[in-house]
Amino acid sequence: SAQPLDSRHRSPPRAMSFIEGLKAIPADLAAVPTREGKMRRAGQLAKIVLDEFAGVLKMVPYGIRAMRAHRSLPDARAPAGRDGVSIARDVRYADAPRAVMDIYLPRGVSIDDAARAVSETVSESTTAAQQGSPVSSSADDDKLPVALFVHGGVWAVGEKWQFAPMASRLAEEGVVTCVATYTLFPKARADTMWREVSDAITWTLDNVDRYGGDADRVTLLGHSAGAHVCSMALLHRCGVTSDVTGVTVDRRQPKCYVGLCGVYDIARHYDYEDSRGVALVSTMGRCMGGKGRFEQCSPLRVLRANAEVVGSNPAFQVCADADAEERRKERERAEAAAAELAAAEMAASIAATKKKEHHINWAPMSMLDTDGDGDMCVPVADIVEEAAAVAEARLVDLEKKTRER
Predict the structure, then answer these.
(1) In the Cβ-directed half-sphere of 91, how many Cα atoms lie within 13 Å?
(2) Which residues lie below 8 Å from residue 224, measured CB to CB, with a gap of 6+?
(3) pLDDT tens across 74-112, in order?
(4) Are 147 and 219 in contact (CB under 8 A)?
């Protein structure tokens, strides 16, 4: 059962970040060979801690406002809560203790059989995903768009209530807004986090219609560390992360993804942290599992290495145009010529479609690293198109060889 609201809010918002940072200080100082160097480093660390503490103090007024906003919202399961924005608190999406979300409902939205929707076991949702149960594509006209928001917090802190002002504002605009949390470091590493967020996506697609939302119009939003976790969750659902071997993965994707100030190249961001003198006390490297796992925990690198596979996911396919029949025939010719290149041909077809439509439904935002380096602003669509261009070249070469025969 969910903890009482007061007990969840007693810790300062970034307490865990301080604790984990302090734990890392002995190892940081041990890496300095000389006594004089250790003294200088101790001074640097003291300044870092003081700066962090000052940052926390500046956020106290906002924290008070956010907590009050969260507490003041009426329960969505009560009829009185339907006159304005209401909230369904601690809706469970998976079995982990922190695998819960708050769902903010716009004015006038009611919950059908709310008690059952909130208390229902996770196993039913998981079973439906494993069996490939489709999400209804014929949503009623009164279904509302959905935002699934995943918070950041250096992979070690963050609570749902901190985002009550944002979620309330979205609900006022008619958006069913889900604010999810997940297991934090040190109780979990990054791969556990992105699997839990994937579970949150699955639960939302399967259940948000009970809260007035349209499962076909779900936008996933991640902020900071949450953007990293969301990006890896989407790649996990494409079957290209290192943790998918031997497990059943729900391949469905949300309608759209927006990453805000995320970290998409862990090694590069680690170098940035190192230049600021905070790499060893930061939770990022430890949360990923050490430098040996930076590559497989970096969305940008995983995407580049698997762009053809990700690009073949139906979530990348845009609406048909006048050349749909021509592309269908092209696919049939390619499959007849060489069945083993069917995946590459599909990627080429996607690239041809994108050139005409000039948009992509999955991940319309760029992957923008927070280091301020201009060349890190890389649209996901560009990465897919690069791989598709290679596949298209192979297809042209195959057709040329087939004609020569």
Answers:
(1) 29
(2) 152, 153, 154, 260, 261, 262, 263, 370
(3) 998 776 545 689 999 999 999 999 999 999 999 888 775
(4) yes
- Omega into 61 within 30° of 0, i.e. cis? no
How many CB atoms are closer than 10 A to CB 108? 12
The pLDDT of residue 91? 97
- Amino acid sitting at position 68: R
Residue 390 exposed, middle or buried by CB count within 10 Å (0-12, 13-18, 19+)? middle
Beta-bridge mates of residue 367: 378
Residue 25 CB neighbour total at 10 angstroms? 17
Please, which residues bridge with residue 223 across strands? 260
Amino acid at 101: M
Q: What one-letter code names the amino acid at 86?
A: S
Tokens 């497990």, residue?
247
Residue type, 84: G
Rounded Cα distance between 59 and 82, Å, is 31
Sign, CA torsion 235/286/56/104: positive
Q: Where are the alpha helices (DSSP H) in 178-321?
A: 190-207, 225-237, 266-275, 284-288, 299-305, 307-311
Q: What is the pLDDT of residues 260-277, one digit of tens each?
A: 888 889 999 999 888 888
| Helices 342-357/324-337 angle, 10° precision | 160
Q: How far apart are CA 99 and CA 180, in angstroms?
A: 7
- Enclosing H/E stretch for 31: none
Q: In whole angstroms, what is the distance from residue 311 CA to residue 302 CA?
A: 13
Lowest mean pLDDT segment, chosen from 44-53, 309-318, 367-376: 367-376
Query: For 338, how many CA atoms within 13 A lie in the half-sphere containing its CB?
Result: 15
Amino acid identity at 158: G
DSSP-based three-state secondary structure for 220: strand
- 3-state SS assignment for residue 205: helix
